[in-house]
Please model this.
Amino acid sequence: MESIGQFVPLILIFVIMYFLLIRPQQKKMKDHQAMVGALRRGDQVVTQGGLIGKVSKVKDDNEVEVELAEGVKVRVVKSTIAQVVSKTEPAAES
Model:
């Protein structure tokens, strides 16, 4: 019985760490994946490197083409998109 009492503080510390550290990080990661998955042509984005540009083409599952200036296009890995500054509206269905 006394040996179980010694493990209670360790279990309590793990539970507190889960709710304060692990769970919020998982939620943040899920939100980022949803944001990246919803990228469309015309969205203005900021990369983790601080570059601001407009998505000109969504190439495949993990890559987009971003136009930084008139005629300057770079390929960017989707996971390095830090934030979407402005979203374009989806095209209206006819």
In short: Strands lie at 44-47, 52-60, 63-69, 72-77, 81-86. The mean pLDDT is 89. The two ends are 71 Å apart (CA to CA). Residues 12 and 69 are 53 Å apart (CA to CA).
